[in-house]
Amino acid sequence: MNATAVHTIATAEDANKKAVHSDMISPRFYTTDFAAMDRISIEPVRAEWDKMMAEYEGDNNHDHFQRDEAFADEVAAGMASLSPEMRQEFLDFLVSSLTSEFSGCVLYNEIRKNVSNPEIKQLMTYLARDESRHAGFINLSLRDFNLGIDLGNLKRTKKYTFFKPKYIYYATYLSEKIGYARYITIFRQLEKHPEKRFHPIFRWFDLWCNDEFRHGESFALIMRANPHLLQGANKLWIRFFLLAVYATMYVRDHTRPMLHEAMGLDSSEYDYQVFRITTAITQQVFPLALDTDNPQFRRGLERLFALSKAMEQAKSQGGLLGKLKQGVCAVQAAATFARLYCMPVIEQDLSPQVRMEPAW
Ligand SMILES: [Fe+2]
Ligand SMILES: [Fe+2]
């Protein structure tokens, strides 16, 4: 399948192309150094680790990802109320959410198959189990519109990015916790305004996001058991991943403003709320946080979004001039990212106990 950009999702082929396509803001697939992962030890956090593994084994969401009787009627009523543009944004949301859920599933499964470290192997079995349920549940909703994603094909054809284990810990920890913060913020909003819940899938988000929260806890424990990952020059990497993940989310969310509007949310306010929740959670593991409420930080993110729009325009313009404009945008975006990276950060002391409750 050709991995070209898709702007409108009208057919299953479009949806599949969209999932396979890689660009700056689309969810990626990852692979890592399994031998290095084998050498990691979780002994310093053994008591908390065993408690967490017992929770995974208890599998309290085992029966959660089943549709109920009201589901189909709610889909029909809710979708009829959407404009064609809004429908597109929602489909885009489903495809990118499915791609990132499945990205976790593929990565965790590959680690499970390739490591012999018993703790990591066992953990990855549970994580892959959960993510496969999440991806499957979203895919059912795409299939309602005949837009199902062929997951086997996606696994075979999507490009993989290699990350060293420590980058996997920083990036997946963050994406799990951000996933939690995103789902719970939407769930709380629609709990207050059920009339704005235009699709039943949002009713599943509360228990669903507890899975993501727990997944994040696992990586927090791995990092706290290996404190060198959180010290010295690694702090620069943590800073980099925080910014890269936040900036990507901001730009991606702002490309579909109507989706948030339909829920009664403003994309920027939604994103800053998600950042605030994530920052509060990261005290369990990261010695620093980004100053996301600083006006200078916010201006930087706005500029990145403006540059990403200009980049899209230059791409569709094509030709030599289009290429030139793309180059200029890329340089400006790199400079903006660098300025954001150099902003002062908030130093924080790690919480004495690693584990936290999903209390938002
Ligand atoms: Fe998930
Ligand atoms: Fe997850």
Write a structural description.
- It is a single chain.
- With 360 residues, the chain is mainly α.
- It has a domain of 207 residues.
- Helix content is 67%, strand content 3%.
- It contains 14 helices and 4 strands.
- The strands form 2 sheets. The chain has a two-stranded parallel ribbon. Strands 3-4 form a two-stranded antiparallel ribbon.
- One fe (ii) ion binds next to helix 8 and helix 9.
Number of helices: 14
* Radius of gyration of CA atoms, rounded to a whole number: 20 Å
SSE pattern = HEHHHHHHEHHHHHEHHE
Average pLDDT figure: 94
Strand order of the largest sheet: 1-2
Gap from first CA to last CA: 41 Å
Amount of beta strand: under 5%
> Would you count the extended β strands for me?
4
Q: Structural class per helix/strand content?
A: mainly alpha
| Ligands present | fe (ii) ion
The unreliable regions are: none
**Broad shape:** globular
What is the share of helical residues?
55-70%
List the helices and strands and how they pair.
Layout (H helix, E strand, L loop, with lengths): L11 H9 L8 E3 L2 H5 L7 H13 L12 H10 L3 H31 L3 H27 L6 H7 L2 E3 L2 H28 L12 H21 L8 H21 L2 H6 L4 H16 L5 E2 L5 H23 L1 H24 L3 E2 L13
Parallel strand pairs: 1-2
Antiparallel strand pairs: 3-4
Helix pairs in contact: 1-5, 5-6, 6-9, 8-9, 8-10, 8-12, 10-12, 10-13, 13-14
The structure holds fe (ii) ion (FE2) (2 copies).
The site of one fe (ii) ion (FE2) has 7 residues, from helix 8 and helix 9.
